[in-house]
Amino acid sequence: MKTLNRKILAVSLTLAMVAPLAVACSKGEKADDQKERVLKIATTGYGGDDEYFRQQFTEIFEFANPNIKIEIISTMDEKYRYGGMQPGEKMPDPLEKLKEVMQGDNPPDLVMMGYEQLPDLIENNLLTQLDPLITKDKFDTAGIVPAVIDGIKNAGGGKLYALAPSFSSSALIYNKKMFTDAGADFPKDGMTWDEVFDLAKRVAKGEGENKVSGFSFSTQAQGDLFYGMQTYTAPLQLKMFDDAGEKMTVDTDQWEKVWAKMAQMQKENVFPDLFDPQKPMNRQFDQQNPFAYDDFMSGRLAMSIIHYGQVQQLTNANKNAASFKGYTPIEWDVVTMPSHPEAKGVGGAIYMNGIMGINAKAQNSPDAWKFIQFINGDDWAKLKSHSSYNLVARSKYLKPKDGQDFHMEAFYNVTPAPMENNNNKIFQEKPYIYQVQDIGRQQFDNVLKGKKTAREALKEWQTQGDAMLKQMKENPNQPVPQPATMGVAG
Q1: CA separation, residue 9 to residues 2, 6, 258, 380 (Å)
Q2: Strands 68-74 and 37-43, how do they pair?
Q3: 44 and 117 in contact (C-beta within 8 Å)?
Q4: How far is CA 74 from the centre of its chain?
Q5: CA separation (Å) from 364 to 31, 106, 110?
Q6: What is the torsion angle, in degrees rounded to the nearest 10, for the CA atoms of residue 148, residue 152, residue 154 and residue 159?
Q7: Distance between CA atoms of 180 and 173, rounded to whole angstroms?
Q8: How many CB atoms lie within 10 A of CB 72?
Q9: Which pLDDT belongs to residue 277?
Q10: Helix locations, 90-136, DSSP H
Q11: pLDDT at position 321, please?
């Protein structure tokens, strides 16, 4: 009986929250606007009957517009969603399938896509420009955070071809006490990476088990710097290989500059110690420290990149510190992600959710625009603003939760780094190309350990990678033996 009561209460609360949306949406509607009609939505990442997709995007709209039926068109073959590929089988490109559907005989009215797919759809004139509709209906875009509106405008050459109702983001978190104890200024918004590294040198101290590192790309203990530094390289748009995935592009001055910088920072103890397989991984499994797996929460790290979803864990730990033996509450705050002088204000860890645009061949573009306004409007943002992991795109509903007081703007006053859809396409077409990336990781490890200079390691990566790419071109669905000259790094 209690379970039934809970369900009734949950439904009642949902209806109570959605009812104002329905009223708002129906105001001023003409009588002939109530006729039954269908709105077709195509997606690249969800199935046709995906429950999460409906809960997240369409159910509220359908409740507020009972005369509009949503038809979801998935461009992903269901057999590939759960690893149904056979040896030697090539997975279809989701973007190419979406483009095919958009131009078919029964095209969708609205499409949802990934940020990396947006430029391609715009360049091929497959999306309707939204600016005239925004102006005509006086739809408010001023309240949409820079992380979303600027990112989408950049993809469209300054014009809007889509909108996104929510996003996830990261910021630079810092331990206030460590900076105070070192007599160093707190980090601030808009810093360059070099400024952050200089600050990190000032607060780093100690060695061995007592070492406090100045900065890490991840709070995770004993993380991998090669993959972690992609946050640093993404705004620079460094590429491992060309657009065809046939030729390496790492033997360059820019790659050398990045690798040399990372090696220098490692040498100056800015970063945590390199993982040593000869030593036990006690930091991650210390029974005296419930958060041993996290360098920042364990007091071993002054600054790090933190995802918004991690804030809740830190907040809960501070609030319940008495319950965690060995945990000391941390006084912290966040500032915007550092950026490079040549890409000022561009961060490398922002992901937009539910990017939606109107198909240029839409048969029901009025309802497609109505849907976009609804999902990207104030009421939807207010309703969805309670998430602890995703952030709504409207800044007025972005406030710290649970009585916390931190610099929330740090998570959204940045612009996302451009994303390469072509890179994703190459990884789909050549499923073993990750082996080329792994060669780079091993060569980078040699640089960090002082066994090779950055340029020497990059030249070897270029040569070995080219040989592997050549074999993959000839046989893309087979693993490639590592070059005999590679050996074992470290």
Answers
A1: 10, 5, 56, 21
A2: parallel
A3: yes
A4: 22
A5: 18, 11, 9
A6: -130
A7: 15
A8: 20
A9: 62
A10: 94-102, 118-123, 131-136
A11: 87
Using DSSP bridges, classify how beta strands 355-358 and 68-74 pair: parallel, antiparallel or unpaired.
unpaired
- DSSP letter (8 states) at residue 172: E
**Residue-level pLDDT at 450:** 94
Query: Of all residues in the chain, what percent are helix, strand and coil, respectively (each to 5)?
Result: 45, 15, 45
CA angle 228, 418, 126 (to 5 degrees): 140
**How many Å from the N-terminal Cα to the C-terminal Cα in the chain?**
63
Place of tokens 């379970």: 3
Q: Which amino acid is at 350?
A: I
Tell whether the model's pLDDT for residue 485 goes beyond 70: no
* Cα–Cα distance measured from residue 230 to residue 232, given in angstroms and rounded to the nearest whole number: 5
Domain 37-166+350-395 classified CATH 3.40.50.360? no
Which amino acid does the sequence have at 103? Q
d(CA 251, CA 269): 27
CA 229, 336, 211 angle in degrees (round to 5)? Answer: 55
pLDDT tens for 8-58 read: 444 344 444 444 444 444 443 443 467 899 999 998 865 555 688 888 889
Does residue 36 contact residue 69 with C-beta atoms inside 8 Å? yes
Measured CA to CA, the distance from residue 365 to residue 457 in angstroms comes to 54
- Give the HSE-up count for residue 48: Cα atoms under 13 Å, Cβ half-sphere: 9
Whole-number Å distance between alpha carbons of 198 and 410: 20
Which amino acid is residue 197, in one-letter code? F
Widest CA span in the chain: 76
Q: Do domains 37-166+350-395 and 170-223+272-347 have the same CATH topology?
A: yes
Q: If you count DSSP H runs as helices and E runs as strands, how many of each does the chain have, helices first?
A: 19, 13
Listed residue (113, 107, 121, 124) closest to 73, CA to CA: 107
In the sheet that 301-307 helps form, which strands lie side by side, from edge to edge? 213-216, 301-307, 170-175, 332-335
Q: Which CATH class is domain 170-223+272-347?
A: alpha beta
Each domain of the chain, given as residue ranges in start order, spans 37-166+350-395, 170-223+272-347
Q: Would you give the DSSP letter of residue 340? A: B
Q: Give 97-122 pLDDT, tens digit per residue.
A: 999 999 999 999 999 999 989 999 99
Residue 119 CA to residue 125 CA, distance in Å, equals 10
Element housing 391 (H / E): strand 391-392
E strand or H helix at 458, and its extent? Answer: helix 454-474
Which pair of structure tokens corresponds to residue 221? 């203990």
Distances, alpha carbon 479 to alpha carbons 315, 429, 469, in Å:
45, 13, 11
Contact 430, 245 (CB under 8 A): yes
